[in-house]
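INTERNAL AUDIT FORM
Audit reference: QA-55
Scope: verify that the stored structure record matches its stored sequence.
Auditor: D.O.
Record contents follow.
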Amino acid sequence: MNRIILHWIVSAIAIAMVAWLLPGIHAGGGTAGALTVLVTAAFLGLANAFVKPVLTLLSCPLILLTLGLFLIVINAAMLMLASALSGVVGYKLTVDGWGTAILGSILISIVTWFLSLFVHEKKQKKD
């Protein structure tokens, strides 16, 4: 359970950093902005867990044809989906368009990867 919460926080920090860096992604400011980022990170995790595998399987020929580059479009779609779902709850992350979503998903992936380098999880020994 701690691992899930830790990954959620790392994703939220990555989304907040990208929203701060990229002018086409808006999370708001203050407490509402922080809640927006946390809600979006939760929905992005759920979308990546449940929707992304189905889309990846259905678009497998297109992924192979583009040598994997279509996965970037799928990641952008997951960001757009998480943005739309966060608006249902009342904390909407605004993504201006597909170009912004593609660039934002690439940056979120890079920042999440970079932040995960600093988070070390202790492996438990099995007796």
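Auditor finding: record pair retrieved intact. The longest helix spans residues 30-58.
Action required: none
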